[in-house]
Amino acid sequence: MALMMALLLAKTKFVTNDVVRDEPSVMGSFIDDLAAGKSAWPELVGKKGGEAKAVIERERPDITGAIFVPQGAFVTDDYCCNRVRIILDGSAGADLANAIVAAVPVIG
């Protein structure tokens, strides 16, 4: 059902000065991500951060921002189609590349 709804909302009509034009919405970006390949890596939970980053970058070379984030850190809630946040069990001062992945890395 959610995928069907996403397909319906993939494009949004904008009316400006009596001209109607199509613009891709955030949902359109999400659908493009799904079409491009893998969008989540549940198998990386429990692995080291550096290993997870290498796997993500190898499987999705279009991802330009695979970034380490300590668990509990504040992050923005914007959606970015070429970013994966790797949530790690470690403090900000720790060696995050060796910290353990605490949540499923997903595009966004």
TrEMBL record:
Q: From its record, what is one biological process in GO terms?
A: response to wounding
Identify the stretch annotated as signal peptide in this record: 1-17
One Pfam family assigned to this protein is potato_inhibit
Stored Gene3D superfamilies: Trypsin Inhibitor V, subunit A (3.30.10.10)
| Entry keyword Lipoprotein | no
Q: What family does this belong to?
A: Belongs to the protease inhibitor I13 (potato type I serine protease inhibitor) family.
Full protein name: Uncharacterized protein
- Give the species this sequence originates from: Oryza brachyantha (malo sina)
